[in-house]
Amino acid sequence: MTIKDTPEEWEIRATDTPFVGNKTSVRTDDVVMPDGTVATRDYQVHPGSVAVLALDDADRVLVLRQYRHPVRHKLWEIPAGLLDVPGENPLHAAQRELYEEAHVKAEDWRVLTDVYTTPGGCDEAVRIFLARDLSEAEGERFEVEHEEADMEIARVPVADVVRGVLAGELHNNCLVVGVLSLVAARDGDGLDALRPAEAPWPARPFEA
């Protein structure tokens, strides 16, 4: 059998948006179940995100340490950010995030993987890119604020990141998915066989 996710949408009898925030909102849908009953489902509506696993020539991953208030932790993460503009090209957003958060640019971009972070309670879709052939970006550094003002930057060997993930010491979703996907791709058809950076993304359609 072929294992592949497929789009599907069940009937919605009623919908409401009880909360609207700065970037996200909460929606309540009355959804018709297969047996004809109606169940209420609450979920966060999210614009989508991009993340970048930046790999240097020494086989190190560029990581950031940032405070995340909802989980009361400082987490090691890879550069990431929201798709603030509807229909925004995710590659352009990823390049912007790598520049703003790490002041780094990359010449080689591939799609590493696409994920729904928490599909039981949020519609957030994330595209994780692999960026290689890194160099220092030109121009002034981006002025950070809020949690990012306390952010640390490091480059850590891939093997050390994998060990931290499997030991339960690293928890950020994009970091975990990204580095394990990197290892799987290397063990499979190789990194050059990954999808091109402009590959279609049905979860968040965009213009090239």
From TrEMBL:
Keywords: Hydrolase. CDD domains: NUDIX_ADPRase_Rv1700. Residues 44-178 form the Nudix hydrolase domain. Pfam families: NUDIX. PROSITE patterns: NUDIX (PS51462). Signal peptide: none annotated. This is NUDIX domain-containing protein. The lineage of its organism: Bacteria, Bacillati, Actinomycetota, Actinomycetes, Kitasatosporales.
